[in-house]
Amino acid sequence: MKGDRDIEKLFRQSEELTPRAELKQEILARVALEVQKKEGSARAVRPRRFRTVTALLAALLIVFSFAGTITVVQGASEQTVYIDVNPSLALNVNGFGKITDVQYLNEDARSVLSGTALIGLSAKEATEHVIVALDSAGYLDGEAEIYISTLTQKGKKEKKDKKAERLLKKMCKAAEQAKSKGRYTVNAAELSERDLQAAAENKLSPAKCQIIAEILEKDDQYTFAELAALSMKELKRIAKGK
Amino acid sequence: MAQFIERTKVDEYLTRIRQGDRSALSPLYEATAKPLYALCYTYTSNHHDSEDALSETYITVVKNIGKYRGESGFNWLYTIAKNICLNMLRSKQKRVLVDFQDEETVNTMHLPAEGPPRLEDESGIIALSKQILGQREFRIVILHAVNGLKFGQIAKIVGGLESTVRWQYNNAIKKIKKAYERRERDEG
């Protein structure tokens, strides 16, 4: 007959309540993402007095700058918008709709776009510039698929961010109307925080991660690595089962 | 082997995180993930939600690290994890009930299959306990037998007097012992 200590020993020996090994990296990646977001919004929010002083300084600089080349853009809330074809890049758009930062998410993007000045342009202008540059480099030949995506579902309840949605529509329209000779389709992708988390873990753009996840749910003949190497056009074809 | 939290280590890691040293997150996780996961499981009763709750716990810790007072870190972690689980359960109660017996519905929802235990539990003691004990009893047993908490600590988490918690634990262990022996007789 088992004593109490024998029963307790069985509990201690059981691994049933041990979290799986991969969970650690997933959680640490998610925490890192949250920290980044927190630090981003902390930078954007300033104490009231600081804002007033900064606004005054900005006004003075604008008044006394030469040739109108010095401008101070005080961003309110930043939104990151991703553009994926096979080159993938991320554009930080501030509350005034201006580009404040560009991140190249793969080498293709860096080699095509590093010579294109995007910072300081409006989101619309930057999108047009990106499309034209991609077209010149031959990435829009033969029915390319362009994915433009941004975080529109925020918080635990994945509440829709209307401002983000409007920005997404604006940039998609700019992409469609850009003066390029290439034939392409523009796809808008709305992202949730889980998509961003998966993208951070896999070091891919979120739209690409989203479509890969969609494919892997339905079809297990591919591996994540195989799909990650494909263009958005190829991924869309696979996702549609063609 | 039960993981016993080294309290002073947890305080040390939390203090480092508060000072901006993110490298302390990894050892904090190593020291606390298993007991926190076990606690979450006693609320959620499934691994999927337990993982979500554990993830939310660490995110909440980092977001609110400024509120950490420099001591009783593991109590603080337990409180955060417990509150997250309770919020999760409350929000689940508000959702529309779905017929989980309907295979088509379940497949469409892409729900993770809970099924048999994911990891080794040769004795089946966890599953057996979950079947025969009430939720509070199950929680008390896990917190003591798996997490190694003292009854006074458990009383602070689950509520009630230390003596009551001790009595409930002993009662629960008797029930488990009976059920375990009955099962061994039936299988043998």
Compact summary:
With 242 residues, chain A is an alpha+beta fold. Helices cover 50% and strands 17% of the residues of chain A. Chain A has ten helices and six strands.
List the helices and strands and how they pair.
The complex is a heterodimer of chains A (242) and B (188).
Chain A (H helix, E strand, L loop, with lengths): L3 H10 L9 H22 L3 H17 L14 E6 L3 E6 L5 E6 L2 H7 L9 H14 L7 E11 L4 E2 L1 H16 L6 E9 H10 L3 H13 L5 H5 L3 H8 L3
Parallel strand pairs in A: 4-6
Antiparallel strand pairs in A: 1-2, 1-4, 2-3, 4-5
Helix pairs in contact in A: 2-7, 5-6, 7-8, 8-10
Chain B lengths: L6 H12 L6 H20 L2 H17 L9 H22 L8 H6 L16 H8 L2 H12 L4 H8 L3 H26 L1
Key traits:
heterodimer, A: 242 residues, alpha+beta, six-stranded mixed β-sheet, 50% helix, 17% strand, globular, B: 188 residues, mainly alpha, 9 helices, 70% helix
Describe what this molecule looks like in 3D:
The complex is a heterodimer of chains A (242) and B (188). Chain A contains 10 helices and 6 strands; from the N terminus they run H-H-H-E-E-E-H-H-E-E-H-E-H-H-H-H. With 242 residues, chain A is an alpha+beta fold. In chain A, a hairpin with a 4-residue loop joins strand 4 and strand 5. In chain A, helix 2 (23-44) crosses helix 7 and helix 7 crosses helix 8 (206-218). By secondary structure, chain B is mostly helical. Chain B is 70% helix and 0% strand. Chain B has helices at residues 7-18, 25-44, 47-63, 73-94, 103-108, 125-132, 135-146, 151-158, 162-187. In chain B, helix 3 crosses helix 4. The longest helix of chain B is centred in the last third of the chain and has 26 residues, at 162-187. Chain B starts with 6 loop residues before the first helix and ends with a helix. Mean pLDDT of chain B is 83; it is low at 1-5 and 104-118. Classes of the chains: A alpha+beta (242), B mainly alpha (188). Chain A binds chain B through residues 1-2, 4, 7-8, 10-20, 23-24, 26-28, 30-32, 34-35, 38, 217, and chain B through 1-2, 22, 25-26, 29-30, 33-34, 37-38, 41, 50-51, 54-55, 58-59, 62-63, 110, 117-123, 125-127, 129, 141-142, 145-146, 170, 173, 176-177, 180-181.
